[in-house]
Amino acid sequence: MDIKPLVEWNEKLSVGIEEIDEQHKVLVKLLNDLYGAIIQKNDAVVIDNILAELVQYTVVHFAVEESLMRIFDYPQYDEHRKHHLALTTQVLDIQKKVKAREETVSMDLLNFLRSWLTNHIMIEDKHYGPYFLQRGLKGAWSTRGWAGKVWEFMHHK
Ligand SMILES: [Fe+2]
Ligand SMILES: [Fe+2]
Description:
Layout: H1 18-39, H2 44-71, H3 77-99, H4 107-134, H5 146-154
Helix pairs in contact: 1-2, 1-4, 2-3, 3-4
Bound molecules: fe (ii) ion (2 copies).
One fe (ii) ion binds next to helix 3 and helix 4.
């Protein structure tokens, strides 16, 4: 079945750093997988697995951003970290309720997750892009970064 994605990647979502964009694309893909699973009425277990992966990858991704912020002495570190903590709490809460079958993944919930991700990228994440580049981080990576490698290793890709 051909399903129109819930979130479509576009340049507006780019922070100007390839490695980070690549990670954001994984988050976008997981949201689209979740949407696809709902449309196709997949088993609850399939949905549980996608949500577990979304939580896991979110934690990995936020940790990568936060370590870059510490390396480059990002002035908005504390503020950004607070956003990450709030976003992590929200997605963990959703995962817990869905897993306990207290909540189902509705269109409202999917729309919430779409804004949850895209607003954070377009507002808070976009803000560090020029700063990191100015501090010497390369926008284009010649080899896969370590976070990508760890993720591939974990998922035997
Ligand atoms: Fe991000
Ligand atoms: Fe962030």
